[in-house]
Amino acid sequence: MTLGPVMLDIAGTALDDDDRKRLRHPQVGGVILFSRNYQNPAQLAQLCREIHALRDPRLVVAVDHEGGRVQRFREGFQAVPAMGHLGDLYDHDAQQAIRLAETFAWVMSAELLSYGVDLSFAPVLDIANPISSVIGDRAFHRNPEVVCHLANAWIRGMRSAGMEAVGKHFPGHGSVEGDSHHVMPFDRRSFSEIEALDLIPFRRVIATHLTGIMMAHVIYDRVDPHAAGYSRFWIETVLRGQLEFEGVVFSDDLSMSGAESVGGYPERARHALDAGCDILLVCNNPDGADEVLESLQDYTNPTSQLRMIRLHGQAVAPGLRESEQWQSACDELLTFNHRLGLASSGDLFE
Predict the structure, then answer these.
(1) Is residue 255 helix, strand or coil?
(2) In a domain, 332, yes or no
(3) Which residues are catalytic?
(4) Which residues contact 5 (CB under 8 A, 6 or more apart)?
(5) How many domains does the chain divide into?
(6) By CB count within 10 A, which of 75, 141, 154, 262 is most buried?
(7) Which domain covers residue 182, as residue numbers?
(8) Model's pTM, two decimal places?
(9) C-alpha–C-alpha distance, residues 295 and 245, integer Å
């Protein structure tokens, strides 16, 4: 059995019969975990083992674990600060910020991999702009050159741990006010304005190494009438053609309000695949997920299947937490958080 193009969520901290049935569907290729799926590290490891045992090749287990506001597993995990704090440090000590970005990314990735999570959807490549509260300090910096430096360091850290990177949200979500979880955002800028700012990090990071890219649920209406995740212009012409990206293209969650512009769940899935997406995220709506799976019964894309195999994480050597590298990296992370005045993980996640 090959991996299918749909990545789904599950209901709780262990698989139930409905989860198992759905995840065995041939059009499923992965699982995205949320905070509701986590109790403690031992439970997470058992859950990932059970998910991986369902299929061969095994399903990809993913999570949004950027740090700061967007870190799904908290109690029992190292607290990773928001990326904007590294950008602030860069303004005073660029080399230190780059070194710590690589270190913190290694901690984040190694810890997830040690429990069986293959992939964290990181780093954010959006430009920091006060207009966007949903991005905010999730972005490294307002300067695209700084974003490039820190994002490349973050990716080096992820890959050194054995995890591939997924940059988001193409072609840039930082300059729109609306939150695509709840509304359909519009970006009124011209292509030349977007290219001169938002596309710089994507172009530079693709040129070094990036395995996946997640699309933005944003309509750039002076460029294309469709939301980016439904746009052949943004995916095939710009991302694949001009930027020469050969990795995996993820839709953002098709259950978000920003995904509703083309109709119901089957229509959203078909539009995203036709535009060039390899993997469809369908979260927090089991009925919608079933509609998508039913609508894709005969779908196949061998190229996407080959791309997806690269998303599996590498096994972490036993004794991670006893290693000198782990102890040193965690000490640096704790020191950094204390200097920010974020003494506890609870402070980091507000």
Answers:
(1) coil
(2) yes
(3) 181, 252
(4) 27, 29, 273, 277, 278, 279, 280, 296, 299, 301, 304
(5) 1
(6) 154
(7) 11-342
(8) 0.94
(9) 28
